[in-house]
Amino acid sequence: MRVLLINSNLKGDVFAAPPIGLSYVASAAQAAGHNVRVLDLCFRRNIYSELERAIVAFRPEVIGISIRNIDNCNMLHPRSYLPEIVEIVRQVRMLTGVYLVLGGAGASLSPKGVLELLNADFIIVSEGETAFTELLHCLETGKPTDSIPGVGLALNGEFHLTQPTLRDFSRGYGDVGKWIDMKPYQKMGSSYNIQTRRGCRQHCIYCTYNQVLEGNRLRLRSPVDVVDEIEEAFFKYKPESSEFVDSVFNDPVDHCTEVLEEIARRPWKATFTAMGVSPKGIDKRFLELMRRTGFTSFWITPESASETMIMNYRKGFNIDDVIKAAEAIRKTRFTVLWDFLIGGPGENNQTLQETLDFTSKYLTKETRPPYYTVNFFLGVRVYPNTKLWHIALREGFITLNSDPLDQLWYLSSELDLDLAIRQMIDAAISCPEIISGFDEKYLPLSSAAALLGKILHIPKLYWRVMYTGNKILRKTVLRFTFRPPDVVALIRNQLMRQGYVGSFGKKVS
Asked: Are 222 and 363 part of one and the same domain?
């Protein structure tokens, strides 16, 4: 069959993400004998013209649309991506009446709601390679489609979903560079994506990876297989850097170490980064191995520097692990982005201050390197099938009628919001490493930043320059991270819209 796969993610800024999941599905469908093309709409200016050109020229029999996220998970600068996806689907429907299949992480978070909103024929939940190829086979041969694991559809007016089957992740390349043009991503400082395993055995109360997206059983790729893919991409596509996009890069640490050691044995030298690094096990020896491998940067995600909150989030490590990681990183030359999540169950102004004090003590440095960016998210996004969903339901932040496609938030009622905002403003003014949710409004300037970076030969990743920008603004007395000034009213209004009627600054019983 002729299959057109469309990347609907239009987020073309410094955090632009090449669609690795879509690439895996494209490779699987092609290996099954289908004629596959990919249309990447990120960075495209005239979406309708691109869709018309691709559909008229290729005449697909099936169209798959990948949905990476349904919103930006940012309470201080909320943005839903659903309206633009609805418009993409509307334009596709104007151009053709072929089967329409939805997939991607965003689609899996609320499959019934997404399928009904977009009025598609099918939706793929969780991993798509096997489910999508089985669906194509059924459509091609006329066999029933209602019993394929991981496929949802409307059946007799009701939503029907067969439970996904999570298979081994032992071999097979996403081969992102084969399916999409990496140049615009690289221009923004993005990397070539690599995945070494699937599944997450952590128990974070807010996360969907171990529940919906990948399950909690680790499925590891052979380190040799992983590095063979990196080597092939290195010579074929010549990426400026490659990024490990595992949900927790260094868990299990033994497997991660084997991958790094296999890279170090190869004669070529590449540049690497990683998202989702856990502070557990980050010591001098591991960091030295990362350096020898070719790492220049990574994201570390403790979410809090309060022992209480680390325990409440069920992160699987403790404050000593976070401090040891920070002390070890301070002796390196890495560029590191630290992520903190403020406002989960049990958060109060004292636990918030513990995280801010940790930042000022360990993550500021008058002499560079290392280079730090410290990202504070206020408010925790609430998703179905997570422990936080049930907590939010019990405490009245959501109701049984809440729509998961809405941006639903949890924010601890133990916080004095006015004081919390003052605490965070004071920290941001004194610490140029800190960015916050409101700073996302500047991401549309990414193209200008990328051009400046090219002219000045600034090393990528470009989020590294946020420190310099913040330092200049601080010296000119313009650095006020949290804006608008009525941020407390903004937060209260958001929570009221989702049905919360409680008050803040009180102890939850």
From this structure: yes
